[in-house]
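Box 4.2: Ligand-aware structure prediction
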Amino acid sequence: MPTDPELDQTRLPRHVAIVMDGNGRWAEQRKKPRLYGHKAGASTVREIVEVAGEIGIEVLTLYAFSSENWKRPDGEVSGLMSILQNYLESELSRMLSNNIRLSCIGDLHRIPDGVRGVLLDSIDKTKKNDKLILNLALSYGSRDEIVHAVRKIADMCRQGILDSGDINQDTISDNLYTSDLCDPDLLIRTGGEKRLSNFLLWQASYAEIIFTETMWPDYRKDAFLNSLAEYQNRERRFGKTGAQLRTG
Ligand code: IPE
Ligand code: IPE
Ligand code: MG
């Protein structure tokens, strides 16, 4: 288990969410095709999942493919899907031996049958694991997720199960794909862009956010530990004053 002296084990984020961005530019900088960057990105995923599990993060949500990414060229989309399938097939045994539970958020109907089959199989085979939850955001868009939740809530009202006057923040949270997860404490985006790109808009309302210039394939263990150390230097005030927090 890594014992980074910088890290306070009692103040780790429970849920870390990452926008894994920069694979394409990383490859282009090396005069390689974009898929070369996506393959290198899969190797970073392996390393970050391992470190997150070892240090005791409860939930790691990785933005792997957005609802908007379907607009990319067909070759890139199918390449990404096969990288995902290879990743899932090669990592199942490691997930089982490292007590990792796989979960997934997003519109899975759009995912090709073969990939979806492997995904659902891995989710099922790891469902009793209780160390790290590896939550993959696939074909995920936060606005679609909110629309989906609103439809479910509207149905409950129509059926008389729920009174519209009783709708509160928990009702919304409970009907999102993330209903069984705590909200992210830390949201990291690699690759230099400073935007959320439709990721966890509701859930990240009080997440600490770190934007790093490092491209995802280069964002390895040390970079991740640095982000966790930076998180621990932040004061999470949740609307209060700093003085209020320090006097308890
Ligand atoms: C992130 O890397 C991976 C996916 C969106 C699937 P990009 O492919 O967006 O890489 P850049 O931003 O073009 O460098
Ligand atoms: C966000 O990255 C989605 C993922 C990392 C999966 P993009 O590269 O698609 O984001 P934009 O389009 O630059 O905002
Ligand atoms: Mg990008």
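In the box above, the bound molecule is magnesium ion. The longest helix spans residues 74-97.
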